[in-house]
Amino acid sequence: HFLNPFRMQVFGTPLLLRTDLEGSTGSDLYDIVARRMLRYVPAFKIKRSAAQERAEGTEGGGQRRPGYRNESRSRVLTQRPPVTLDLEEVAGGPIPRHGFRLRLVHRNANTCSRCHWMEGCIGCTIPDDDGPTIVKDGDTIAVDWHLTIVKEHFKSGELGAVTRHKSVEIIAKMESCPITVEACVDAFAKKEKIPEAFCSNCKDFRSCVKEMSLWRLPPILIIHLKRFQFTQYSRRKLRNLVVFPINGFDISRIVATDTEAPNAAHNVADGRSESLYDLYAVVHHLGALSAGHYVASVRSSPLGAAGPSKWKCYNDAQVTDISEDDVVDPSAYILFYIRRDIGGLKLEDVWDITQKDTTQLTEEQIDRMIKQRERCTVS
Questions:
Q1: How much is the pLDDT for 333?
Q2: Which residues pair with 63 in a beta bridge?
Q3: Which of 128, 112, 108 is nearest to 120 (CA)?
Q4: Hey, how many other C-beta atoms are within 10 angstroms of the C-beta on 122?
Q5: Whose CA is closest to 76, among 20, 143, 23, 131?
Q6: pLDDT grade, residue 48 (50/70/90)?
Q7: Whose CA is closest to 29, among 45, 17, 43?
Q8: N or C: fewer beta carbons within 10 Å in the chain?
C-alpha cells in the first residue's frame, strides 16, 4: 500500500456485446464498447478519431509497433509483458482515445485470463490499433477507466439506471395478478397445432390439431400445479396465486361430447353422470426451490354440509383449525377434489377391490380385462 496506493475495484453492471470478431480490428472493438459507454461519460470529448490515429501511427500517446497488422493473435500475446499494478498506465499515464483500456480477464474481472496467476497480471491489454483483435469468442473483457475520466467525467448515478423493455412490465404484471384454476384447465385442453404428426392410416407426416378432452371423469381428481420452473438459464419457484373453488368446481368444459348417443342415461360407474367436484384436501409447499416444507389442509366437515366447511391444517405433529379462506393461498401445490355424486359412497361402491394381484397377468390379459369392465379398477 505504501509503494502503490491504487487498487483495482470492480463496479457497474456487466454488459453483453454481440459482434462479429472475424475481420474486426482492435479499434473496431474499442469503438463498439465506447458507444455503449456514452451514457456514463457523455462529457468526455474524443479529440482524435481512430482514422486520424491510424494515420499518425499512435495509440493514446504510445508508439505503435510496425508490422503488427501481419502478426498473429497468439504471437502478440506472448510478446506483451504482464500488466501489473505498479505500471504507470494502470493508475494514470496518457489518457487513451476513449478514456479506457480493454483487458482480457476472468469472469471475476480481477485476474488475467491469459497469464499465469503468479505473474500478477490484472489483464492483458487489448491493443487499440488496426491489427486483428486478440479477443476470442466467449472472452470476458474488463473496461479499465483512466483515473482522470473517473474523477472528472464519469456519471456514477447512471450505473443503477436500467432501461426496461416493455415486455418486462407485461410479464411482471402477469405474475402479480392471480389466475384461476379454470384458466389453467383451459390452457391444458386448448387446441394445439402440430405441423408434422405421423398418421397411422396414410403412413406419412401430416399437419393436424391436437385437443385434450376427458371421456370419463374420475371419482378423485388430483390437480398438480407447476410450482417449480427449470429453464436453460435459471431455476425458481413460481409463487403465483392460483384461485381455485372450494365447492362446485365444474370440469364439464373439457369433457368430450358423446356424438353417438348424446341423450344416453349415465350412472355413477361410467364417470359421465356428474361434472361438479368439491375440494377435500390441499398440499402446500412452503419455502424456496432448494429447501422447503410441506403441510396439508384437509376438510374435516362432511361433504354437502350446510354452512362454511371446516378445515384442519396438518403440520407434522401439529393439527390446528383453520378458516376456509386460508386454504386458497400462493403456497397451494396439489389439489384433491372428489366428485360430488360419490361423496356419500364407500370405496367398494366405486372401485373393484377384489382383484389383489395382477403381476402375473400378460399384456393381452390386462387389455381384455380393461375392455370388459365398465369402471376403473384399483389393484
A1: 95
A2: 58
A3: 112
A4: 21
A5: 131
A6: very low
A7: 17
A8: N
